[in-house]
Amino acid sequence: MLESIQISNFAIIDSLNLELDRGLTALTGETGAGKSILLDAIKLVAGDRADSNTVKTGREKAEISVCFNIIHHDEVQTWLRDNELGSDQECIIRRVVHANGRSKAFINGHSCTLTQLKELSQLLVDLHGQHEHQSLQKPLIQQQLLDTYLNQPELIEDVKRKFCDWKSVEKDLEEIRSGSIEREQRIDLLRLYCEELESHNLADGEMQNLQSEYSRISHAGQLLDNVGTLLGILYENDDSTVQSQLSYCEQSLSTQVKIDETLKTSHDLINNALIQVQEATNELRNYKQSIDLDPARLDWLNQRIATTQDLARKHRIDTGSLPDYFQKLKLELDALCGSEQDLDKLERQLELANASYLTSARLLSQKRQHTAAALSEQITQIMQELGMEGGRFSIEVAELDTEAGYKKSGINSVSYQVSANPGQPLKPLSKVASGGELSRISLAIQVILSEASRIPTLIFDEVDSGVGGGTAEIVGKKLRWLGENRQVLCVTHLPQVASQAHQHLRVEKITSIDDTTTNVHALNEDERLEEIARMLGGLTITEQTRAHASEMIAS
Questions:
Q1: For burial by CB atoms within 10 Å, which of 120, 151, 430, 454 has the most?
Q2: How far from chain centre, in Å, is Cα 336?
Q3: Rounded distance, CA 292 to CA 262, Å?
Q4: Is the four-CA dihedral 215, 220, 221, 227 of positive or negative sign?
């Protein structure tokens, strides 16, 4: 239940602190007093987009805060906990709009998004505007209203989900089918590439080894000559070799060390050098023996390297990446070859998804048809009470014949049919109802839907427009009846409606030389009598008018 509203610097409101009660609360006032401003403020905290023009002229910001008692509203408490905005006692929503256009929103002191505001407000407030009858002629709105009364959100969501699943599979299937020619061409090309790469059979790191071997064999003569020269210098040129010279030095120092031990370090270094020269000589001899002068091997290496480089240029990659590239092409080829199996699998999935959707959609259709009949009877009954004697209302729910018309919302087309006068056939609502009749039919639907709703606070913004006399009194009694178990706020210009209220608020516009402001005042019994009398008699209020007002309040 909406317990309080605090407003500052909003439109022509300076400051307002309003406490609200259960039951039916009527908001009245002269034309232009600002009755709807209060509802505009509620819409803002319910997630409407902010407009800097709503900030009172000369002020930096406007602020609206509302407090809801949610002790008995488990669904609201669950939503708050799920969004980590929880409170088990009350829910405070605050909206701040700055003059520069920026706005902020808060739920229980925590910053929140407009999406969160809208989700939460849908659980707290159901607002019916005075122009809703204009949208009543739209097929989409007609179906949404029927589904609201049906109150099967899980089934409706199930149909929507299954429709999306069905269309997703259908899209995948179409993509495979539409790309079949391109797929076959790609398969042929991949097979050619893979066969070529597989026959080449290049291993990881092989190209580097090939190039090293090619360099060695192609320079074999030069290498043999150089190694032979080095062996001669080191060992094989009789007494002039490095080894013979080092041997002489080592033997000489070994004798001198016996005389002076300080030469031992020099002796050891020369001895080590001699050992290393011997090892180097052995390595060079082995290397010389390993050099292959086979021209056939050189030709093979040259061809292997050239073929590898040609393949790399063909695929626009470096030679070292060829093995990985081959594996990548194989994976793509395997995936495309397996798409034929995917095609069969998707076709089966499509049949199952379509059947699952139709099962749920037909169940929803049956429930809609049953509910449409019951709702039609109730609306027809209230139409009689609202001055449309002999009128009939019917909700036609037809099942579509082809898949082309199936939608997320199901397989139905919904049409509101009405006969405004006795003996007249039912025709589409938009073709037979006048503005006043539309308004009353809309009010009948809103009253019935409000009964079915679990939302704690209902707000009606001049939905009684276009009615008067005894019909207005019936409207008032309907709203009061709703207020017996719910909180109902109603902006009205009809005394017949205001007289039925449990609480009466008067909206006043106060004008001075340099400012205009709106105030809302809770009326006591005497003030309420005067306000009803004003609504009945205008500027001149007589004792007879007061007596009439008193009689209306007492009835």
A1: 120
A2: 33
A3: 50
A4: positive
Q: Pairing relation of β-strands 487-491 and 23-28?
A: parallel
Bridging pattern class, strands 457-461 and 125-128: parallel
Q: Do the strands 392-399 and 412-419 form a parallel or antiparallel pair, or are they unpaired?
A: antiparallel
Q: Is 255 exposed, middle or buried (0-12, 13-18, 19+ CB in 10 A)?
A: exposed
Q: Tokens at residue 82, please?
A: 């799920």
DSSP 391-408: -EEEEEEEE-SSGGG-BT
Question: Which of helix, strand or coil describes residue 9?
Answer: strand
- pTM reported for the whole predicted model: 0.61
In a domain, 285, yes or no: yes
**What number is the average pLDDT over the span 303-321?**
86
Q: pLDDT per residue over 327-352, tens digit each?
A: 888 888 887 776 666 777 888 999 99
| Domain span at 483 | 1-130+462-523
Quickly tell me which residue has 């276009």 as its tokens: 466
Tell the residue number behind the tokens 């149909």, with chain if given: 159
Direct distance between the N- and C-terminal alpha carbons of the chain, in angstroms, rounded to an integer: 27
Task: Identify the CA nearest to 207 among candidates 290, 289, 292, 324.
Answer: 324
Q: Is residue 289 included in any domain, yes or no?
A: yes
Residues 194 and 322 in one domain: yes
23 backbone dihedrals φ, ψ, rounded to 5°: 85, -165
